[in-house]
């Protein structure tokens, strides 16, 4: 039996980070090259042929459209390469859910695409990087990982991109899945899926665009005034995401300003600043033309609204369907 061929796209993050000392608190992400990461992996003797490519070596707070375009292009090439069976992307955890969700919506589901990161740098005591990496190799090399959209592997859990959220600032169990929780469990020696694939042989849902319309997130707080809505519009926002109270609520003044924005052709998505729970479509949304984010938190709601705008989907009913979809 030949080894599984997996393309590994490296972008940096803590999984490639070092502190230079096991007792130092601060560290720098993006210090170890993909060659060195793969050389470490080779020592484990996993039955996989890993083909590495360094796209960047940065903290994921600096990731954005230009790097996304290069990664997306490469992923499409790997999708078309009959020799390649799976794709892995090493990534900082801070924005991993955004990259994962963007590619989840803009890549076909024909082959596994797996993001992996770490919460502790490579030279920390109890570093999680190599274990997460070995787990991700197992997932990316499993044919049954295809048809589930983009996946994120952390702390022996497999999350679907749509569900994955960074929910803790520290500790190795920093990610949670909402509303589904993990879709599978993986260790370097085992892999278990919690159900069948739900997106088998799906084409990309949206075309990828490097230059997407600007969408701003408005974070609600007590005492917020409506001029913040106007400032976002004056700053060029073509769409707005409310990170509202509770189930996507805001004061009467903010709601009125948002309703006015919709009337001027700027779509508005209501999401929540609360970490978990649905924001459902309400009768009032029909009155004002608002879209309910459902299970998506503000960062992913922003990406989905950008994709809708970039692909010419502006009517609230079609937009709502995109938010309702698994
Ligand atoms: N700045 C962070 C990033 O690259 C480092 C944290 C991490 O990778 O977990 O996202």
UniProtKB/TrEMBL annotation:
Gene3D superfamilies to which the protein is assigned, alphabetical: 3.40.50.40, L-asparaginase, N-terminal domain
Residues the record lists as binding substrate: 60, 93-94
Key words of the record: Hydrolase
One Gene Ontology molecular-function label: asparaginase activity
GO biological process, one term: asparagine metabolic process
Catalytic residues of the enzyme: 14
All copies of domain Asparaginase/glutaminase C-terminal, residue ranges: 214-323
L-asparaginase N-terminal domain: residues covered: 6-195
Domain of life: Bacteria
Protein family: Belongs to the asparaginase 1 family.
Protein name: Asparaginase
Organism: Allopontixanthobacter confluentis
């Amino acid at each position: 039996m030949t080894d599984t061929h997996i393309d590994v796209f490296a972008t940096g993050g803590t999984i490639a980070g070092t502190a230079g000392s096991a007792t130092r608190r601060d560290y720098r992400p993006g210090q170890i090259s993909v060659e060195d990461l793969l050389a470490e992996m080779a020592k484990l003797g996993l039955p996989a042929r890993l083909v590495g490519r360094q796209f960047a070596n940065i903290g994921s707070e600096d990731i954005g459209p230009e790097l996304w375009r290069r990664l997306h292009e490469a992923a499409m090439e790997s999708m078309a390469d009959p020799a390649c069976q799976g794709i892995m992307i090493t990534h900082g955890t801070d924005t991993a859910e955004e990259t994962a969700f963007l590619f989840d919506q803009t890549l076909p589901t024909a082959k596994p695409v797996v993001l992996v990161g770490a919460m502790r740098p490579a030279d920390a005591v109890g570093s999680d990087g190599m274990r997460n990496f070995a787990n991700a190799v197992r997932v990316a090399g499993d044919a049954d990982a295809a048809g589930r959209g983009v996946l994120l592997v952390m702390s022996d859990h497999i999350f679907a991109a749509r569900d994955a959220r960074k929910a803790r600032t520290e500790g190795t169990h920093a990610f949670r899945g909402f509303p589904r929780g993990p879709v599978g469990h993986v260790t370097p020696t085992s892999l278990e899926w919690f159900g069948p694939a739900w997106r088998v042989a799906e084409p990309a849902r949206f075309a990828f665009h490097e230059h997407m319309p600007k969408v701003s997130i408005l974070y609600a707080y007590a005492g917020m005034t409506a001029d913040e809505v106007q400032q976002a519009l004056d700053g060029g926002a073509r769409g707005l995401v409310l990170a509202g109270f509770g189930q996507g609520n805001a004061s009467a003044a903010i709601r009125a300003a948002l309703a006015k924005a919709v009337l001027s052709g700027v779509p508005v998505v209501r999401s929540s600043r609360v970490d978990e729970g649905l924001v459902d479509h309400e009768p009032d949304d029909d009155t004002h033309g608002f879209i309910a984010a459902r299970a998506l938190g503000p960062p992913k709601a922003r990406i989905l609204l950008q994709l809708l705008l970039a692909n010419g989907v502006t009517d609230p009913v079609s937009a709502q369907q995109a938010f309702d979809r698994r």
